[in-house]
């Protein structure tokens, strides 16, 4: 049994199709198909079946999934160690986009300096996908916002808390700056990332509670692009304050007052409780925790 075939199975489950799994693994779709067929032939059963446009596990595949994940987890655990306490091997870590783009860069150089023999794979994912990926063994660790839904098998550590800020272009008309008075229709767009973003959910819940209707929602799946579009006058956004701290200080963005009772989210580090983190993961967690603390979060 080839370990690559098991990795292909995980990629198909995560992406929902052979084509997207191939893109994720940087290989051809025919390679993905070959790996699945070879594994199915070795096991003498069908692992996948198509439901609509998605590939899902067959009943036999569901029964075997825990065993496949156990094999992959064991292999990654072996690869993390060049010897007891050694900073070597490979780790797969998923981080929420705002944390990855705004906080991680300054600590990655220190990680590389202290752990030059570690092969670090960093993945930018939605918080819900990170939680599920750590649970399934796709990632060794996740650093993201607490969106709930964690099982007892996951080990959680709070690293800090990020508060949200409603930001707008400094040129926004005075009549559009009031986000406190209920029952409004405002000719301004809400510029934000994907639908399951915790900060998007916070702001949309607030707008519904206040019966404030904005003209449109513009989805841009990149936090730096969102900030630039807001600064250019396209609309408003609700982002972690640490992510817009520089722009607020420079005056390219302005913060609007908002009477929101719950505007923040805990930053957590999660790994599977049944598996030892290993020295490389512990180092990454410690450096990230220090970076978060330096921001006062």
Automatic annotation (TrEMBL):
HTH lysR-type domain boundaries: 1-58
Gene Ontology molecular function: DNA-binding transcription factor activity; transcription cis-regulatory region binding
Pfam families in alphabetical order: HTH_1 (PF00126), LysR_substrate (PF03466)
Annotated InterPro entries: LysR_HTH_N (IPR000847), LysR_subst-bd (IPR005119), WH-like_DNA-bd_sf (IPR036388), WH_DNA-bd_sf (IPR036390)
Keywords for the protein's UniProt record, in alphabetical order: DNA-binding, Transcription, Transcription regulation
UniProt record similarity statement: Belongs to the LysR transcriptional regulatory family.
UniProt-recorded name of the protein: LysR family transcriptional regulator
């Amino acid at each position: 049994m080839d370990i690559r075939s098991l990795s292909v199975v995980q990629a198909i489950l995560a992406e929902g199709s052979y084509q997207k799994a191939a893109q994720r693994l940087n290989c051809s779709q025919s390679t993905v198909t070959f790996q699945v067929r070879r594994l199915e032939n070795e096991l003498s059963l069908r692992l996948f079946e198509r439901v609509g446009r998605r590939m899902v596990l067959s009943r036999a595949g569901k029964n075997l999934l825990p065993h496949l994940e156990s094999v992959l987890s064991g292999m990654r655990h072996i690869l993390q160690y060049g010897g007891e306490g050694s900073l070597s091997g490979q780790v797969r870590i998923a981080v929420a986009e705002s944390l990855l783009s705004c906080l991680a860069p300054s600590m990655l150089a220190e990680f590389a300096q202290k752990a030059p023999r570690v092969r670090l794979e960093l993945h930018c994912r939605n918080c819900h996908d990170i939680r599920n990926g750590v649970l399934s063994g796709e990632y060794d660790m996740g650093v993201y916002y607490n969106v709930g839904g964690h099982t007892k098998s996951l080990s959680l550590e709070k690293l800090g808390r990020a508060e949200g800020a409603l930001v707008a272009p400094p040129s926004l008309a005075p009549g559009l700056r009031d986000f406190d008075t209920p029952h409004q229709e405002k000719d301004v767009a809400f510029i934000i990332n994907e639908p399951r973003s915790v900060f998007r959910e916070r702001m949309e819940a607030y707008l519904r509670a206040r019966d404030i209707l904005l003209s449109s929602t513009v989805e841009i799946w990149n936090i730096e692009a969102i900030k630039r579009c807001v600064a250019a006058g396209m609309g408003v956004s609700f982002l972690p304050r640490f992510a817009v701290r520089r722009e607020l200080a420079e005056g390219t963005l302005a913060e609007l007052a908002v009477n929101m009772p719950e505007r923040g989210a805990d930053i957590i580090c999660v790994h599977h409780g049944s598996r030892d983190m290993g020295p490389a993961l512990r180092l990454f967690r410690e450096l990230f925790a220090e970076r978060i603390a330096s921001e006062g979060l």
